[in-house]
């Protein structure tokens, strides 16, 4: 066999990272064609909420103890970035992931090549992370035009929004990997987890307003930890030690979700 | 073996409309939707909870941030009592749109349900009426639940609030009819973001969460064009029992929207599927 023939071989196994990035490149190709139709979820949705709640509803709110002395717009802006990230991540981790297994079957196709289910999962998480960072940045720029930011801490808020999104997304990916029907359970996740989480996790008002039995929703929800950390870096209303605790919670949740999803991706894709 | 022996009902509609548009079988379309929902009843029931979560959030949290608001007729009211009728109108809209867009798109493109239906004596107007009828039924069930909770919280200010149920049905009818027309123009699932792009501003800016007076004069006129604004005006007036002649205008706006929507939907079904 000559060397030329060896080079022509297509059966080359790529490294772990490169394999995942090849998939991300695939998502990017899709996105370049369809970015316009995803504009709503990419940044525009939290901007609408900022206009309605920050400016409209905020005009009825007096800056006071509940908002830490800040105007309602400044109070709600970082949390809306994080909440928008959670919504986007859960959306992107539910039906699109199930579609990879079931309808489009792109996961099945890709794992027929040397790319492993773990790389497929990794690429999905990287892609959601890219979408989150992009959405957060677009929102941050528009919110700056509204005059919502008090400091450059907003750059850290974008990263916290991405981390919170991934912490919300990986458990949903694990759920999607164990879903075999048409995905009706995602509807229940949106209604009974995502919406209560958005409403009762300190996004729009401090959880101190809630009765104690309801506060556990906030304590358990990744969104509350993300909101607190985001406010800490943009407004400085939370201590540094507490902020590290919030970030640690998010990292652990993202890791547990990733590990579970990893297990179920292998179970479903390796025959 | 069941054989269809009875002639379809031949009412005045059949003589007025072009033949084969309508056969008086819209009930069968509704029955079919009811049967499919009986398999995913949890999803159906959960729809009633969504506005309740919002109501709870406003009672517990938002209401603490805002004291009193100026409501219909210039009277002051608690913020929760102000926002609850708006939420009821918005949930009637959201429920109707969900049914008439995502589900309808799936039935139209993938399940090929309407192709199958139109191969029977069912006509395009039957389908339009049946789908809108189901949305109205569903919206009705949700709004009764919502009004019940509102009453338990002591929010409605008068007996006129009972009329919020028919008002919710009217909103559901108008939005589901228009939603059906719009969804027949969509080509792929990724275009569903456009629906949110229309729905969310309607939900957020139609004075659901704060009075119209917040906006500058020019924007107030834009908001008055929004269909949901008319639904919310109707609800808020009925909730506190302040009636005015402008409410007749709100009703007329929504009725016109529903009529245009149902006509348009039957035309689109006919155009897309009966070629």
UniProtKB/TrEMBL annotation, chain A:
Where do the ABC transmembrane type-2 domain residues begin and end?
Answer: 37-268
Question: Which Pfam family, giving just one, matches this sequence?
Answer: ABC2_membrane
Membrane topology, as annotated: Multi-pass membrane protein
Recorded GO molecular functions are: ABC-type transporter activity
- The answer on whether this UniProt entry bears the keyword Oxidoreductase reads no
Protein keywords: Antibiotic resistance, Cell membrane, Membrane, Transmembrane, Transmembrane helix, Transport
Q: Which GO terms describe its biological process?
A: response to antibiotic
Q: Does the keyword Ribosomal protein belong to this entry?
A: no
Q: Which GO terms describe its cellular component?
A: ATP-binding cassette (ABC) transporter complex
- Compartments, record wording: Cell membrane; Membrane
Transmembrane parts of this sequence: 34-57, 125-146, 152-176, 188-208, 241-261
The family note in this entry says: Belongs to the ABC-2 integral membrane protein family.
Q: What PANTHER family would the database entry show?
A: NODULATION PROTEIN J (PTHR43229:SF2)
User: What name does this protein carry?
Assistant: Transport permease protein
Organism listed in the record: Amycolatopsis umgeniensis
UniProtKB/TrEMBL annotation, chain B:
Keyword Transmembrane attached: yes
Task: Give the bilayer topology.
Answer: Multi-pass membrane protein
Per its UniProt record, what InterPro entries does this chain match?
ABC2_TM, ABC2_TM_bact-type, ABC_2_transport, Nod_factor_ABC_transporter
Q: Which UniProt keywords apply?
A: Antibiotic resistance, Cell membrane, Membrane, Transmembrane, Transmembrane helix, Transport
Q: Does the keyword Transport apply?
A: yes
**Family, per entry:** Belongs to the ABC-2 integral membrane protein family.
* UniProt protein name: Transport permease protein
What GO biological process term is on the record, naming one?
response to antibiotic
Q: Report the subcellular localization.
A: Cell membrane; Membrane
- UniProt-listed PROSITE patterns: ABC_TM2
Q: Name one GO cellular component term.
A: ATP-binding cassette (ABC) transporter complex
Pfam families recorded: ABC2_membrane (PF01061)
Q: Which residues form the ABC transmembrane type-2 domain?
A: 42-272
Membrane-spanning intervals of the chain: 34-57, 77-97, 157-182, 194-212, 242-265
A Gene Ontology molecular function term for this protein is:
ABC-type transporter activity
């Amino acid at each position: 066999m000559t060397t030329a023939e060896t080079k022509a071989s297509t059966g080359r196994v790529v490294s772990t990272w490169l394999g995942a990035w090849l998939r991300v490149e695939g998502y990017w190709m899709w996105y370049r064609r369809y970015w316009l139709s995803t504009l709503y979820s990419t940044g525009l949705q939290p901007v609408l909420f900022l206009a309605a709640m920050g400016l409209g509803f905020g005009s009825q709110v007096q800056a006071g103890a509940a908002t830490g002395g800040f105007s309602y717009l400044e109070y709600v802006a970082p949390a809306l970035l994080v909440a928008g990230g959670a919504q986007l991540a859960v959306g992107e981790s539910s039906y699109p992931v199930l579609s990879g297994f079931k309808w489009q079957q792109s996961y099945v196709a890709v794992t027929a090549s040397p790319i492993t289910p773990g790389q497929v999962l990794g690429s999905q998480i990287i892609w959601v992370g890219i979408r989150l960072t992009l959405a957060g940045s677009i929102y941050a720029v528009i919110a700056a035009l509204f005059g919502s930011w008090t400091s450059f801490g907003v750059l850290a808020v974008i990263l916290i929004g991405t981390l919170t999104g991934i912490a919300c997304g990986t458990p949903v990916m694990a759920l999607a990997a164990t879903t075999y029907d048409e995905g009706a359970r995602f509807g229940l996740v949106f209604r009974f987890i995502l919406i209560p989480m958005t409403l009762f996790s300190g996004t729009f008002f401090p959880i101190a307003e809630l009765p104690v039995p309801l506060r556990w929703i906030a304590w358990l929800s990744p969104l509350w930890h993300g909101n607190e950390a985001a406010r800490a870096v943009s407004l400085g209303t939370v201590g540094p030690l507490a902020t590290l605790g919030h970030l640690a919670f998010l990292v652990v949740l993202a890791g547990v979700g990733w590990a579970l999803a990893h297990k179920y991706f292998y179970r479903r894709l390796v025959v | 073996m069941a054989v269809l022996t009875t002639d379809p009902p031949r009412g005045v509609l059949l003589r007025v409309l072009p033949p084969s548009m309508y056969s008086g079988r819209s009930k069968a379309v509704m029955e079919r939707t009811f049967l499919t929902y009986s398999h995913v009843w949890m999803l159906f029931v959960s729809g009633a909870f969504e506005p309740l979560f919002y109501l709870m959030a406003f009672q517990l949290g938002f209401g603490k941030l805002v004291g009193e608001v100026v409501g219909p007729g210039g009277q002051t009211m608690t913020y929760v009592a102000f926002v609850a009728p708006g939420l009821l109108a918005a949930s009637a809209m959201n429920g109707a749109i969900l049914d008439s867009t995502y589900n309808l798109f799936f039935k139209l493109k993938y399940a090929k349900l309407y192709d199958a239906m139109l191969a029977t004596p069912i006509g395009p107007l039957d389908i339009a009426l049946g789908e809108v009828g189901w949305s109205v039924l569903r919206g009705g069930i949700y709004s009764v639940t919502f009004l019940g909770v509102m009453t338990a919280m002591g929010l409605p200010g008068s007996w006129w609030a009972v009329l919020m149920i028919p008002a919710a049905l009217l909103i559901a009818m108008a939005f589901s009819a228009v939603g059906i027309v719009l969804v027949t123009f969509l080509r792929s699932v990724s275009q569903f973001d456009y629906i949110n792009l229309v729905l969310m501003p309607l939900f957020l800016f139609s004075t659901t969460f704060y009075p119209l007076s917040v906006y500058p004069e020019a924007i107030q006129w834009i908001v008055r064009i929004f269909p949901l604004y008319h639904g919310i005006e109707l609800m808020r007036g009925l909730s506190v029992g302040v009636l005015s002649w402008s409410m007749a205008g709100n009703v007329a706006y929504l009725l016109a929207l529903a009529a245009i929507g149902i006509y348009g939907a039957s035309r689109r079904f006919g155009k897309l599927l009966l070629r």
